[in-house]
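anyone seen this seq b4? input:
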Amino acid sequence: MTRPVGKTVTRPQGEPVARVGPVAHVGLVVRDADKTAELYSELFGIEFAIDDYDMSKGKFFNVEGKPTKARFRAAFGQAGPVSIELVEVIEGETPHTRFLSQHGEGLQHLCFYVDDMQQTVARFKEAGLRPILDYEFETVYDGKRSRIQEVYLSTNEVLGGATIQLLQVDPLE
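predicted toks r here
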């Protein structure tokens, strides 16, 4: 695939605020993860794995820095090199529920892998981006028992409406 050639935008001097890894997934907030996964499968041939997550069973789950309870149903699918996450909030108030009430269903976040969550978040905080959702739990990720830490940043008003999510995966096996 040949991409169009046009203006190049680069950081004018020095290093970026923080280096992130490749895109982990794109996240869509939906009202019904099962029905949406079935529709994506029917229309595009994408197979989804659907699981429920009780975030009170994780190490912590904070919205705007405050401990909160929430339950999610998440469907993960793979479309070529792109991973798609469908997020349905079953219980609780989160950035996902706010997005759904303000915009309806749709693309809510873009997730990047990071190697050092604490350092990356500290660098973004210095640049004025604060965590709006921060949590940690253990699950099976790519076939391995892993510790998952995720942080959503307050980027939706400065980056065209999208929230940036950071993901650190540490295999425990």
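The first helix runs from residue 33 to 44. The CA atoms of residues 5 and 68 lie 46 Å apart. kinda curious what u guys think
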